[in-house]
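Hello,

Following up on my earlier ticket. Below are the two sequence lines again, exactly as submitted.
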Amino acid sequence: MSRPVQYNAKLKTVEPPEGMMGDGFMATSLEKVVGLARQNSIWPLPFATSCCGIEFMATAASHYDIARFGAERMSFSPRQCDLLMVMGTISKKMGPVLRQVYLQMAEPRWVLSVGACACSGGIFDTYSVLQGIDQIIPVDVYVPGCPPRPEAIIDGFMKIQELVGEESLRRRNGEKYKELMGAYGIQ
Amino acid sequence: MSLTYETIQKKLTEKFGDALTNWQQPYGMLTFTGPKDLNLKVLQFLYDDPELKFQFLTDLQAVHYPGQKNEELAVVYHLHNLVDNVRIRFKVFTDINKPDVYSATALYRSANFMERETYDFFGVNFIGHPNLIRILNVDEMDYFPMRKEFPLEDQTRVDKDDEMFGRGGTMGFGTEKEEDGPTLTEDHKHNEGSKIL
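Thanks for your patience. The regenerated structure is below:
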């Protein structure tokens, strides 16, 4: 006879989207289901450059587990990831490299800018540091901090999850998106 | 008998005479200055001499002294004798309008990258260097950042608050005048540097 579960009994599971349920079937809108699936299985690409990368390592470790939110498999190939997490100082020499990585990602793709240096150059306002990655790629969520605590990184990740869950399936083909990409010089 | 600073100085002055000047020992490290045409000869002598044997180039850097006309850029070599554990410093001054210095790459392989870095940041042109291009900065950069006339901060920012960065603002940092002298901010604009020779 197996022992019943004593600890961790209050688990939070994801709510199913509203729809019509019947005997063996459920009818909802496709966007909701796709959004639900996408938001809970985001595969991030950790673009860890400096100190924020260490905080990310802490976030990915067992204490502040980011795998709980679906980021179990960190892909290091941009072709296979959903979320580009830029963590750390990006110098002007690294800028084109980061842009290349972003361009190699497949739609739908999101960008999370972690830490003061990635958001705006941080304390390094010098000739060699890029003053914010949003000068070269579009960013969805900014996480401030120097470095942000793992809880803050998880908070940013949860905001990305919200964005992913609410995104319309037609957004990536629309005019506004094309304009946004055009502003960065991306086809 | 271990190698002393007197021995080193004596041997160098025997060989090069008055060409080497300004013998000092700041913080206990023997320092001397030489003319830039002789820099390779001095380095070669220090390398080959069986008693001196300075066969390790610890560092190669430059310093910009805007105040000294015709000798603004100093190229500094730090040499180390690994056998007797003795370190010396050798300085060579050059004009900023014609910053040509002979490259030490043939003698020390480590000078290759260090001279590229010195070129990248100060603009010192090393004659005879196999591949003198920028190493740490962006390739398209057209100025030399560590020269004193260039500001540290990225000039494209428009949102920096003077108050928070110690320039003026409500507390007036750097704007106090004392008896018709320049204010701190105005003084820093000239950047005369200090005379070191």
